[in-house]
Design a protein that fits this description.
Blueprint (H helix, E strand, L loop, with lengths): L3 H21 L3 H24 L5 H24 L6 H22 L9 H18 L3 H34 L1
């Protein structure tokens, strides 16, 4: 059954080409609004899943996949554009691709997905905010947040590696 949290995750995936269309067309305001709505669905799907015990096997795959596809797609669009220095989305993209690929491998090996840490959740929230602000042409605060997100993203990525290795090594013994 496709519960509300899974529908919200699916909606987040379906919104990717919509906000990318507006982004690539140079309509950053509309792209920011749609991207922000997409980010809100990320919060809401988790909230409803936990509050109403609507977690599912599909949701454990669909939600993180929607998260990563959303972030990866907008970071690639930011690399293509000239609205922020290219090295910023490249650094963030490397981390996101690493986690996306390693999550997939971990899952294919039969292990549960690694839940994001609090630092990872804060990092992603600030990344969503930085992207939305920059698209809304709030240059200074948006760019400043990117510089806050980079070290948070790197540290949470390292924490993800540590958690994954601990989980894998505990299952080997």
């Amino acid at each position: 059954m496709m519960g509300l949290p899974n529908l919200l995750s699916l909606l987040r995936i379906l919104l990717i080409p919509v906000y990318l269309y507006y982004f690539l067309a140079g309509n950053y305001i509309t792209a920011a609004i749609i991207f922000s709505f997409s980010a809100l669905t990320d919060f809401l799907d988790g909230y409803f899943a936990r509050k109403y015990q609507l977690t599912s096997d599909l949701g454990r795959i669909l939600d993180p996949t929607a998260d990563k596809l959303s972030i990866i797609s907008i970071l690639i669009a930011l690399i293509i554009s000239d609205i922020i220095p290219h090295y910023i989305p490249v650094i963030l993209l490397i981390r996101e691709l690493f986690i996306f690929i390693s999550s997939g491998i971990t899952y294919l090996l039969g292990y549960d997905m690694i839940n994001p840490s609090l630092l990872g959740k804060i990092s992603i929230f600030l990344l969503y905010l930085a992207i939305a602000l920059r698209l809304l042409n709030v240059k200074f605060i948006g760019l400043f947040l990117f510089y806050v997100v980079i070290p948070l993203n790197i540290v949470s990525g390292l924490d993800y590696i540590k958690t994954t290795l601990n989980k894998l090594s505990s299952n080997v013994n």
